[in-house]
């Protein structure tokens, strides 16, 4: 009976903690706004664009229609992808576009 109660309590605690496991990345781990002139590359986001590939440490200028914004992908080491609409200025990107972030080459280990 005690074992059954412990299993029930453990299951309930896990169910209540699941939203914490699926919580989106903190914004401060996703990089920082950057001036467009600091960009080393420009990516044009069209209505058909669903994702973009970037490298950690890159500064990218994104052009969306007649608007643009710069982003410095100095991201946390656990960040491999995130939705750019979370970091774009209001009104610039009103739909999901996933940024797939490869590791920053400055911090890759030696083989």
Properties at a glance:
111 residues; alpha/beta; four-stranded mixed sheet; three-stranded mixed sheet
How does this model look, in words?
This protein has a four-stranded mixed β-sheet with strand order 1-5-4-2, with no helix packed on it. Strands 3-7-6 form a three-stranded mixed β-sheet, with no helix packed on it. 18% of the residues lie in helices and 30% in strands. The chain has 111 residues and is an alpha/beta fold. The protein is elongated, with a radius of gyration of 19 Å. About 5% of the residues have low confidence.
The span between the termini is: 53 Å
Question: How do the helices and strands follow one another from N- to C-terminus?
Answer: HEEEEEEE
Biggest beta-sheet profile: 4 strands, mixed
| Strand order of the biggest β-sheet | 1-5-4-2
Helix and strand content put the structural class at alpha/beta
Any idea what the shape is? elongated
Rg over CA atoms: 19 Å
Helix content: 10-25%
List low-pLDDT spans: 18-23
In total, the number of strands is 7
Q: Kindly state the mean pLDDT as a whole number?
A: 85
Instruction: Estimate the strand proportion.
Output: 25-35%
Short note summarizing the structure:
The chain is an alpha/beta fold. 18% of the residues lie in helices and 30% in strands.
Write the layout of secondary structure elements.
Elements lengths: L1 H20 L10 E3 L6 E5 L5 E5 L3 E6 L2 E6 L8 E3 L14 E5 L9
Parallel strand pairs: 2-4, 3-7
Antiparallel strand pairs: 1-5, 4-5, 6-7
């Amino acid at each position: 009976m005690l074992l059954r109660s412990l299993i029930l309590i453990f299951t309930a605690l896990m169910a209540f903690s699941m939203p914490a496991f699926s919580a989106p990345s903190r914004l401060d781990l996703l990089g920082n706004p950057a001036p467009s002139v600091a960009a080393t590359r420009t990516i044009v986001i069209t209505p058909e664009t669903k994702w973009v590939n970037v490298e950690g440490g890159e500064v990218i200028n994104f052009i969306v229609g007649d608007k643009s914004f710069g982003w410095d992908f100095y991201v946390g080491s656990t960040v491999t992808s995130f939705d750019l609409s979370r970091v774009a200025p209001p009104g610039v990107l009103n739909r999901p576009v996933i940024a797939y972030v490869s590791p920053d080459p400055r911090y890759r280990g030696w083989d």
